Amino acid sequence: MASEKSSVALTRVVSSLFHNFGKLLFTNLLFAVPFSVFFAVFWLINRISGVNSMFILFLTAIPLFPFYAGVTQVTSHMVRGEENVKVFENFISGVKENFLRFLVHGVVFYLAIFFCYYSITMYASLASKNSIFYIFLVLCILISIFFLFAFFYIAPMTVTFDVKMKHIYRNSALMTFGELKHNIFAVFGLLVLFLVCATVMFCCYTPIAVIIATIILVLFLIPSVMSFLINSAVYKCMYSMMVDKDAKSQVIDKKMQNRRNGQLFDEDDVQEHRILDDFDDVEIDENKDGSEYIFYKGKMIKRSVLLKLKNEAMQKESENDV
Fold first, then answer.
1. What residues contact 226, with CB distance under 8 A and at least 6 apart?
2. pLDDT per residue over 226-239, tens digit each?
């Protein structure tokens, strides 16, 4: 059953991907404009300064990240199953409404890459001389995976919910462990995307062809499809978690307000009492066949089901009395 559900979900994702492929290309073109500008700027800085470090080039991520908000905004609408997604309008609104927050995310993203790369490189070199450093190497790899999973949720959570930054990072960190299955699905999707791109590269027999293929993939495909695959894997569980949490918070706030106003029972509690009162007119013999049907509120319900409902109502009433 679980495998059937997974195959259906995978089929739905692939179908949605091809259905929205043209819009994903357009989204990627919108993202390609600032990407080309910022990458060119930092490439020139890298060459003129003589540093020639890829981490100068990686600084592109900081000013570019607010534009990734536009990509995330568009793909999140697609993942929700919306038919007529207005790519340009959603892209622009995603950038405008989340610019400062994604600028912060860009700084965090850059620092995470910097830390993970140099830590893994350093401990891999030390481990070749002393095996004790393999412990630190594995620890750094696990931290890198933690950052990867967290960023699966940071972007869609920011464009979807108006919550504080600390809550975004806290909830994203919690979901790295709590939604491990969906995180693995996202990694699987990214692996498939990587294999497709690697296959294209493998078919290029000259350095010029490799450069051209890389430019085409980056400008037309990778960022938007990557965002789409990640959101397809994690968006639904992220949305459900945030909405359920907010609903529970509102219920608690309402109950606290009722107590401050001197109200001892909440509407839900009163409803539970009414449910229990409904069983007073129904005679349920516990010694008779549980599969026998009893007429209750216009429907035929099994005796065992009615007994379960009555017992649950009695338990809730006793808890409320305490």
1. 190, 193
2. 999 999 999 988 88
Q: Are 238 and 156 in contact (CB under 8 A)?
A: yes
Q: Which of 15, 36, 65 lies closest to 228, judged by CA?
A: 15
In which residue are the tokens 């969906």 written?
A: 182
Determine phi and psi for 75, rounding to 5 degrees: -70, -30
Is the pLDDT confidence value at 130 over 70?
yes
Measured between alpha carbons, how far is 160 from 217 in angstroms, rounded to an integer? 28
How close are the terminal C-alpha atoms of the chain, in Å? 42
Classified as helix, coil or strand, 102 is helix
Its pTM stands at 0.73
pLDDT band at 299 (very low <50, low <70, confident <90, very high): very low
* Partner residues linked to 203 by β-bridges: none
Question: Percentage helix, strand, coil, to 5, in the chain?
Answer: 80, 0, 15
Dmax over Cα atoms in the chain, in whole Å?
89
Among candidate residues 80, 65, 66, 75, the one with its CA nearest the CA of residue 21: 75
Structure tokens at 81: 């199953």
pLDDT digits (tens, 9 = 90+) for 144-154: 999 999 999 99
- Structure tokens of 295? 């007429």
Q: How far apart are CA 62 and CA 31, in angstroms?
A: 14
Cα separation, 319 vs 239, in Å, equals 31
Minimal CA–CA distance to 234: which of 305, 172, 153?
A: 153
| Alpha helices (H) along the chain | 2-19, 21-49, 54-57, 61-79, 87-127, 133-160, 165-178, 180-202, 207-220, 222-260, 267-278, 303-321
